[in-house]
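Hello K.,

You asked for the raw outputs rather than the summary table, so here they are, unedited. I folded two proteins back to back in the same session to keep the settings identical. This is the first:
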Amino acid sequence: MNGPSTSAPAPSTHIFVHELRRQRTGSKVRFLCYLREYDAAKGQLLVEHAYPHDATEPARASIDVNMVLETARRDLMTDGRWLNVIGYVLSGPQEKKRKSTNAGNAQSTSKEVPLPIVQAVLLWDAGAINVDEYERVLQKHMEVRAQARVMLDNACKAEARKEQEKKATIPKP
């Protein structure tokens, strides 16, 4: 063996439930959610989080808990509980019917809206969490992370320009 193993698990990205739709299949994510319903037969949780606050309805997701059922405490699967989840975004059709109305049409129609699916690898009780404070801190963390990404991108672009300028000034033999 030529050194220490570097096969550590990938870190998770801390996000809000409404951001699950934007994650790539296979992305490892961590989020806080409210357990709306547990389907014991399927080993699935229907979870939600009413954030952002100006959304018309809470963001929802389906969590497959079959991999963690043997190690998870039974009381975690109680409706109305706040949970922390770490898992992988899965592909696949999981749809939930949602009523929608057309502005020009007085009748309601059912519209199929895909529900994000996450395969849980770790699930734990959020305890007596102050949800408003959690939302504020995570939002600030995400803003700082986005600013850091922009700064890093700008630094990389500046370095690339310097390299191009350097190559342009070297005389060719």
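The second followed immediately with the same parameters:
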Amino acid sequence: MRRVGQLVQSTTTPGVMPLPGGFAGLYRLFQSGKTYRDPVLVSGTDGVGTKIKVAQLCDQFETIGIDLVAMCVNDCLCTGALPLFFLDYVAMGSDDPILTESLVSGIA
């Protein structure tokens, strides 16, 4: 899981605050280097649906992470928002560190 942590760290931007334990995401809006006239935080969540079945057939899971980020970012962009942070959730029937690393690599 150390490699997954390194992938996550590679996505850090100036507004991201470190948090021991990592069970929540903290973001300093005004330390992002941007100025906002009337700030509103926009967040979106989505899933990859049946694309996971195609990924399983191809044994290629990094693309699932890429698709997931694209769908979530697009949902925020269509409101005029600038994507500042990403919240993740990975659910699996059993622990598979290699698959997890591939998914997170696509997300990162």
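The chain has one domain: 2-107.

Happy to rerun anything if the numbers look odd on your end.

Regards,
P.
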